[in-house]
Specification:
The strands form 4 sheets. A 5-stranded antiparallel beta sheet has the order 1-2-3-5-4, covered by helices on one side. The radius of gyration is 18 Å and the shape is globular. 37% of the residues lie in helices and 22% in strands. The protein is built from 8 helices and 12 strands. The chain is an alpha+beta fold. It folds into 2 domains: 2-57, Phosphorylase Kinase, domain 1, CATH 3.30.200.20; 62-227, Aminoglycoside 3'-phosphotransferase, Chain: A, domain 2.
Length: 229
């Protein structure tokens, strides 16, 4: 499979990601979470000319997006419980401050909110609210709804239904670690909320399991409606 600047292939038991748009930071991130959370085993990574190559474990299974409609209620609950358990494992690694950044104070690359290395939660809130910048009143409302004293911890950063592999036994593996960093602890549930919006029941189960405050849900619901209207 190929998309601009990125090629992926399966070679035996290895999944290979390569290309000019692949960043070494993704390999560093995956290396950092080895043994901490359900993720592919990292075999090696290297630069080859202007390209980066990452070789990792191939994880058999289906993406959450593909498999969810086929699951019964008990299986869905099991999958949601497994997702929230893995998020809790990441949350155990606090950052010690309120900076939004990658590991070793690097820049976070967010598909939805751009690149950032921000000093505190207020700056992050401004960035999040800027997604509705064409409407100053709504932007101000989003900022008011977002918290300013969250605990910051390790987060996947781009947690949505194609970056979650569901195995045959309903266990799950997180893939796609290029956006990992230190975020407010609500961040991963909210990425799931925005990006896996296809099934409201799944969203409700996941956010309920993670005890996400209603004001945060309201803020991201506004963003969701505006971004995908």
């Amino acid at each position: 499979m190929v998309r601009e600047g990125v090629r992926v292939s399966v070679k035996g038991e290895r999944f290979v990601k390569a290309g000019s748009k692949v960043r070494l930071q993704e390999a560093y991130n995956l290396e950092y979470v080895q043994g901490k959370v359900a993720c592919p085993k990292l075999y090696r990574y290297y630069q080859q000319g202007d390209e980066v190559v990452i070789e990792m474990e191939y994880v058999p299974g289906e993406t959450l997006r593909a498999i969810w409609p086929t699951l019964d209620n008990d299986q869905k609950q099991c999958v949601v419980d497994n997702i929230t358990n893995e998020i809790r494992k990441l949350r155990a690694f606090g950052s010690g401050d309120t900076s939004t950044c990658g590991i070793n104070n690097t820049i976070v690359h967010s598909e939805w909110f751009g690149e950032f290395n921000l000093k505190d939660e207020q700056e992050l809130n401004k960035r999040v609210a800027s997604t509705v910048q064409f409407n100053p009143k709504v932007q101000a409302l989003v900022q008011r709804l977002l918290p300013t004293s969250s605990r910051f911890c390790l987060g996947h950063g781009n947690l949505y239904d194609v970056n979650i592999i569901v195995k045959e036994d309903m266990s799950i593996v997180f893939v796609g670690w290029e956006c990992m960093g230190f975020f407010p602890e609500y961040w991963d549930p909210m990425m799931l909320f925005i990006l896996s919006r296809r099934d409201k029941k799944m969203i409700d189960q996941a956010t309920s399991n993670m005890n996400v405050d209603n004001s945060i849900l309201a803020a991201f619901h506004i963003i969701l409606v505006i971004m995908f209207k």
